[in-house]
Amino acid sequence: MVLSVTLLLFVLMLIGVPIAISLSLAAVGGLLASAELIPLTVVAQRLFTSIDSFPLLAILFFMLAGELMMVGTMAERITQFAFACVGWLRAGLAQVSTLACMFFAGISGSGAADTAAVGKMMIPLMEKKGYDKGFAASTVATSGTIAVVIPPSIPMIVYGVTAGVSIGTLFVSGIIPGILIGLSIMGLNYFLARKKGYDKERGTFRWQAFGQAFKQGIWALLLPVIIIVGIRGGVFTPTESAAVAAAYAFVVGKFIYRDVTWRDLPAVFIRAATMTAMVVFIIAGANLFGWLFAAEQVPQQLASLILNLTDNKYLVLLLVNIVLLIAGCFLNASAAITILTPLFLPLVMGVGIDPVFFGLVMVVNLSIGLITPPVGLDLFIVQGISNISFDQLIRGILPFIFVLVVDLMLITYVPQLSMWLPALLGT
C-alpha cells in the first residue's frame, strides 16, 4: 500500500497538481485502500491539528518582515552595502549577489523571497556587464539557498516543530554552515570569472564608500543581530522574534527610511498571508501523508532495513543524505521535513546522532533542492527574471550543485562546524 500511495503522489505532481493537494489526495487514497476501516473524518482532524502550533506563527511574521523589507528601500540599502564590501573584487557583481543573499537570509528565512529580491536587482546588472545569462542566473539561484540555512530559517522552524527540538539552537547552529556555503559560492564565482574572463579589471576597497553604505543600511543590517541576540539573551522566543522582526521592519521602513506608506500595507499583508497559506497548507498535507506512513509502521521498517545494512552512524548519515537529496528534487523542503523527520529521527538518534545536528544537516541537504530539477523553486524564479532557457540554466547550475554537495559532506562529517557555536553560547 505504501508503494501505491507514493506512486500516486508522484503521478499527481507530474500532471501538475499543486504539491499540498497532491500530498492530501495521496493520503486520502491510502486511507481508502487501507485494510483497516479508517473514517475520513481523520483527514480533517490531522490537517487541523498539524498546524495548530504556536511556533508556526513565526512563518507568517518572517514572511511579513521580508515583504516589508522589499516594498521599501531596505533591500536596496543592503545590496549597496554588499557592493561596498565586495563589489571591487573580481566577479564583483556575482560576489555582491551572494553577499546580499547572505544579508537577506538574516531577515526573511525564505529562499524564494531572497532569490526574487536579489535577482530583480542583480541579474540585469550582471547581463549589462557582460556576464553569461546562465552564470548570472545560477549565481543568484544558488545564493538564494543560503536563506534556509542562516537564521531565521522557515525550514528550521518546521523541523523544530516536527522534531520537538529547540528552534533557537537550530538557528544558532546554522550560522557557521551558512557562512561556509556563502564563501564557497563566492570562491566558485571567482574561479568561473577567471575562466570566462569576467571583470578583468579589479577595483580597490574604499573605506569612504564602505562607511557611507554602512551608515545608510545600518538599520536594516541590525535586524538579524536583534533576532539572534534577542533569542540567545532570553528576551524573546523564536516565535516572538518573528513578530519583533516584522514590527521592526515596519518601524524602520515607515518612520526612519520613510519609504513604506500606509497604502503599501494592504498589498504587503495579502502577499505575506498568501505565501504563509501556501507553506502551511503544504505542512498540513505533508503531516497527513506522514501520519499515514506512521500508521503503516514505515519508520520501524525503514530503521530495520538500514540497521540490517549498517549501524555505523557515518554510513547511516550517508544513506540518509542520499535519500534526502533525491527527495529534495521532488518535494518542497517543508513537505520533505514534515514527512521524513518522523521516519529518520528515531533511526539517527538510535545510532547516537544529536537531533539538532541532524536537523541542520537535513535543512542544508534540502536547501539544495531549491536548485535541482524538476521542481527547484529558485530555478523557476531566476528563469522568469533572466528569460533564459531551462537547458542553459541547468548547464550553468551544475558546478554550483557540486560545490553545495561538497559543503553538505563537510557539514555532515565535521559536526563541530554547526555544533561549536551552540555549545559556546550554551544554547
Task: Describe how the helices and strands are arranged.
Layout: H1 2-14, H2 19-33, H3 41-51, H4 57-71, H5 74-86, H6 92-105, H7 111-128, H8 133-144, H9 154-163, H10 167-173, H11 175-196, H12 207-232, H13 238-256, H14 264-295, H15 298-309, H16 313-328, H17 333-350, H18 355-367, H19 377-386, H20 390-413, H21 416-425
Explain how this protein is built.
This protein has 21 helices and no strands. The protein has one domain. It is mainly alpha-helical and 427 residues long.
Give a brief rundown of this model.
The chain has 427 residues and is mostly helical. Helix content is 77%, strand content 0%.
- Uncertain segments: none
State the shape. Answer: globular
β-strand percent reads under 5%
- Mean pLDDT, rounded to whole units? 87
Q: State the secondary-structure class.
A: mainly alpha
Task: Quickly count the domains.
Answer: 1
| Helix and strand element order | HHHHHHHHHHHHHHHHHHHHH
Query: Main beta sheet: strand number and arrangement?
Result: none
State the separation between the terminal residues, measured CA to CA. 42 Å
Number of helices: 21
- C-alpha-based Rg, rounded: 21 Å
Number of strands: 0
Annotation keywords:
single chain, 427 residues, mainly alpha, 21 helices, 77% helix, 0% strand
